[in-house]
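stage 2 :: seqdesign
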C-alpha cells in the first residue's frame, strides 16, 4: 500500500516536534554541563548530587524521544522508498517543498549549531575533570609519599628508613 502525501506530511510534523524536543534536550545538556563545571569548581557536593539526580530522572524522557525519532525516521524511509541510513534531514529536505522544507532546514541548522557547542562544552568539562583528577592524584602522592623512592634512606645495618618531615603524613607503624 502506497503512503499518501497526507500521511507523509503527518509523519514530518511528528518528526519536527521530536526534533524540537531534541533541541530542547541539547540546550538543557549545555546548561547542565555549565552547572556541573561551576559546582565542581565551587566544590558544592549537594548541588552536584541534585544535578545527578535530575539527570537520572530525565534519562527515560531522552530515551523515549530517541525511540520516537528512530521510529519516525524508519516510517519516513519506508514511505519514501529509501534505506534507513539514507533517511537524514538533508534527504528529507530534498523530498519536501515549501514551508515544511524550510522548517526541516531550520531544525537541521539549529541541531548542527547546538551539536558543535555541545562538543566544545563537553571538551571543556572533560579537561576540567581531568585537571581535577590530576591535581588530586598529585596531592595524594605528596601527602602519602606514594612513589617517591628518593625519600627512603638506609641505616648502617641495612634497614630502610624514611626521612623525617618529608611528607605530610607518615604511614610507618
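stage 2 :: out
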Amino acid at each position: 500500500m502506497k503512503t499518501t502525501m497526507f500521511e507523509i506530511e503527518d509523519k514530518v510534523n511528528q518528526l519536527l516536534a521530536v526534533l524540537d524536543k531534541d533541541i530542547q534536550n541539547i540546550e538543557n545538556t549545555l546548561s547542565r554541563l555549565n552547572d556541573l563545571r561551576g559546582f565542581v569548581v565551587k566544590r558544592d557536593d549537594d548541588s552536584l548530587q541534585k544535578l545527578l539526580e535530575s539527570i537520572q530522572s530525565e534519562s527515560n524522557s531522552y530515551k523515549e524521544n530517541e525511540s520516537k525519532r528512530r521510529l519516525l525516521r524508519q516510517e519516513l524511509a519506508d514511505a519514501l522508498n529509501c534505506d534507513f541510513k539514507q533517511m537524514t534531514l538533508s534527504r528529507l529536505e530534498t523530498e519536501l517543498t515549501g514551508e515544511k522544507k524550510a522548517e526541516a532546514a531550520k531544525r537541521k541548522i539549529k541541531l548542527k549549531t547546538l551539536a558543535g557547542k555541545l562538543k566544545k562544552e563537553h571538551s571543556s568539562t572533560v579537561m576540567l575533570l581531568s585537571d581535577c583528577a590530576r591535581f588530586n592524584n598529585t596531592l595524594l602522592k605528596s601527602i602519602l609519599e606514594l612513589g617517591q623512592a628518593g625519600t627512603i634512606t638506609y641505616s648502617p645495618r641495612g634497614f630502610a628508613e624514611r626521612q623525617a618531615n618529608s611528607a605530610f603524613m607518615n604511614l610507618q607503624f
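stage 3 :: structure notes
- The mean pLDDT is 86.
- Residues 5-144 form one domain.
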